[in-house]
Amino acid sequence: MAVRKAASYSRRHAVPYTRVSRVKGKAFIKAVPPHKITKFTMGNQAAFEEGKFPIKLTVVSLEDCQVRNYAIEACRQYINKQLDTLIPGQYFFRIFPYPHHIQRENKMLTGAGADRMSTGMQLSFGKAAGKAAIIKAGGKIFMLAVATPKAEAIGRKVLKTVGPKLPCRKSILTEHVNPVLVLN
Length: 184
Hints:
The chain is α+β, with helices and mostly antiparallel strands. The chain has a domain at about 55-105 and about 125-180: CATH 3.90.1170.10. The chain contains four helices and eight strands. It is elongated and about 60 Å long. The termini are far apart.
């Protein structure tokens, strides 16, 4: 069966009971869905830690929302591929949200004879269908660090193209960090 559309989950009203515990009586979720995001940091991390990337672009959410791990992984793959093609080795990319929230869905049958199999709203808690990251307004989603203004323009363009994949309004903040001078 196909994945239910993200609009079913994007706007967060109340967090359902999705507790995971080793103790059977305290666990509301019996099986946790697998994790889809493979990497959270990409690019040249050593150069970033040495301070060689003074320009930081940060994608920030402007509203509360839930972002599915499918959307985060799709953005990660696209951004990393584009940056690796356009400015190879001259960037550092990080994903901030970690999808902890487990989404559930109550599968319903349709068609002839479905009324005999469906229980309607009786025990309609649903089964675990996927994971999502709950992001507050002002929360960081992605961070990209680059070295030159030309790479900044490329990075900004790439970050803008993944905008439609995310379910919330977002903004790209720019921060110029001055390199620290070491005096002997």
